[in-house]
């Protein structure tokens, strides 16, 4: 195996950041392919918490080239805030370590404004977006109005695009009683960003092709999760990009056969931020207990995450739509100490059994989960296990049942926030990751 795709199989926040950081030493390049600074990927290094939003989580490992693909939407102020934060921590994040695709779309000052208006207009039906301008930037991409990072190289082109955009956006702002944006002021601001961002711009498909041709290994890093995918998620309660596997090829300009394996990051329970159907949601004391123990607050917005039991119907769907080879199971330590741990094995809708995960949100909203109740495992019993069989039998049983239900093997078990709180099940993950290289680099 050479190149690995790491993606979320639920509604985001599965622990992708931790696992990407952990596996990065086995790769030369870490490349993100979609989303923007709506993501929040938390990594603990030596007890210090680092939250990455736009920059790949591989940046914390020296020597790795990190790539931001054409599939992302990039807000220059957010990008440079993150660069400054990393550099203040002694992490180099200049153009030698970080490449930005010329095809990445820019989040412009009107995008968050238009998004807030849209969320307000929806009222009760709002999506609960991060209001960072992500959705409107993708809307403009599809509308063929978008401003791309490569346009920063020519201020004449940039001016024209800003003027064309404001001709469409200012009437909307005025109609909502908001002041119009001034093209000259936006141009001045973005000319400032251009001077700083242009040195990072690269032809990413060419760069990745060259790196792979010389034998470098690439880790493709997904943000959000499969169930937030604009095509395969719980539409319309989704993000506006494709976190699913196909997004890696379109979002970076690589062929599908450059992806040699897919690791699905899966939380041992379920969480969701923002609105949308969530069949296994716990609105009771148990839900609050899981939220508190799991520190389930949005890494980007600080909003409390909704919590619920593991949903095997949803994760099996995600494993199928992404061709997941192995699962990295995260946060089972959070469930430790519970007497019983229910797992959702199916849904009923209007009394009938549903054969699979419904693509209509309004069906999922009314789906009634069916549970199989498993035994819990004791508090504090997961840490420090050297191999899988040394884990508590009730937990091993939980993993085996999950594997059967989602029809995918577990290759990694994460039992805490730190790099060392991780068990790599060699026989399962060995085909996806060069373990000898990983261990040599981590020593
Ligand atoms: P991401 O968006 O998928 O990268 O996930 P987030 O970083 O938003 O959320 C995952 C949270 O769980 C972070 O705070 C991680 O530090 C934490 N985390 C990751 N793996 C584990 C684990 O195995 N156990 C516990 N208790 N926390 C974990
Ligand atoms: P990571 O990468 C969890 C959710 C928002 C909202 C919906 C649309 O950390 O897993 P958007 O601003 O993207 O248009 O909002 O998607 N959302 C996330 N939820 N983790 C994320 O990223 C998310 N990124 C977006 O809460 O419901
Ligand atoms: Mg997150």
Description:
The protein has 443 residues and is an alpha/beta fold. The protein has 2 domains: 4-97 and 203-442, Adenylosuccinate Synthetase, Chain A, domain 1 (3-Layer(aba) Sandwich), CATH 3.40.440.10; 105-200, Adenylosuccinate Synthetase, subunit A, domain 2, CATH 1.10.300.10. The protein contains 14 helices and 20 strands. It has helices at 16-23, 76-88, 110-122, 134-142, 155-175, 183-197, 204-213, 246-250, 285-293, 312-322, 361-364, 393-406, 426-429, 435-442, and strands at residues 4-8, 29-32, 41-45, 48-52, 65-68, 73-74, 98-101, 105-106, 201-202, 218-221, 261-267, 270-272, 306-308, 310-311, 326-330, 340-349, 352-354, 368-375, 409-414, 422-424. Strands 9-7-5-2-10-1-11-15-19-20 form a 10-stranded mixed β-sheet, sandwiched between helices. Strands 14, 16, 17 and 18 form a 4-stranded mixed β-sheet that branches. It has a two-stranded antiparallel sheet with strand order 3-4. The structure holds guanosine-5'-diphosphate, 6-O-phosphoryl inosine monophosphate and magnesium ion (MG).
């Amino acid at each position: 195996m050479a190149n690995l795709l790491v993606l979320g199989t639920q509604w985001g926040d599965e622990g992708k950041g931790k696992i990407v950081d952990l596996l990065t030493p086995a790769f030369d390049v870490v490349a993100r392919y979609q989303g923007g600074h709506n993501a929040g990927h938390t990594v603990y290094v030596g007890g210090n918490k680092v939250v990455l939003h736009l920059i790949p989580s591989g940046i914390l490992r020296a020597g790795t080239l990190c790539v931001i693909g054409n599939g992302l939407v990039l807000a220059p102020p957010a990008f440079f805030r993150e660069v400054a934060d990393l550099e203040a921590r002694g992490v180099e994040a200049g153009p030698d370590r970080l490449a930005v695709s010329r095809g990445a779309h820019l989040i412009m000052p009107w995008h968050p404004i238009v998004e807030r208006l849209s969320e307000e207009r929806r009222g009760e039906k709002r999506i609960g977006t991060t209001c960072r301008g992500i959705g409107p930037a993708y809307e403009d991409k599809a509308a063929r109005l978008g401003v791309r990072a490569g346009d920063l190289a020519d201020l004449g082109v940039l001016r024209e695009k800003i003027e064309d955009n404001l001709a469409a956006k200012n009437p909307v702002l005025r109609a909502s009683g908001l002041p119009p944006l001034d093209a000259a002021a936006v141009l001045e601001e973005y000319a400032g960003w251009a001077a700083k961002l242009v040195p990072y711009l690269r032809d990413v498909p060419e760069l990745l092709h060259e790196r792979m041709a010389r034998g470098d290994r690439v880790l493709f890093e997904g943000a959000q999760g499969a169930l937030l995918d604009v095509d395969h998620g719980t539409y319309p309660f989704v993000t506006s990009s494709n976190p699913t596997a196909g997004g890696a090829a379109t979002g970076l300009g690589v062929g599908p056969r450059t992806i040699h394996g897919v690791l699905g990051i899966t939380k041992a329970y379920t969480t969701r931020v923002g609105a949308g159907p969530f069949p296994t949601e716990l609105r009771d004391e148990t839900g609050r207990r899981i939220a508190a123990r799991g520190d389930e607050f949005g890494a980007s917005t600080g909003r409390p995450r909704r919590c619920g039991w593991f949903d095997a119907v949803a994760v099996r769907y995600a494993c199928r739509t992404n061709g997941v080879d192995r699962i990295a199971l995260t946060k089972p330590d959070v469930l430790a100490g519970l007497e019983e741990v229910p797992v959702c094995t199916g849904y009923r809708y209007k009394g009938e059994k549903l054969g699979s995960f419904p693509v209509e949100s309004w069906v999922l909203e009314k789906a009634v989960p069916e549970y199989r109740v498993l035994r819990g495992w004791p508090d504090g019993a997961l840490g420090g296990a050297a191999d899988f069989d040394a884990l508590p039998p009730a937990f091993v049983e939980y993993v085996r049942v999950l594997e059967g239900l989602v029809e995918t093997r577990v290759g990694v078990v994460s039992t805490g926030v730190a790099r060392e709180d991780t068990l790599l099940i060699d026989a399962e993950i060995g085909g996806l990751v060069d373990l000898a290289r990983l261990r040599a680099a981590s020593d």
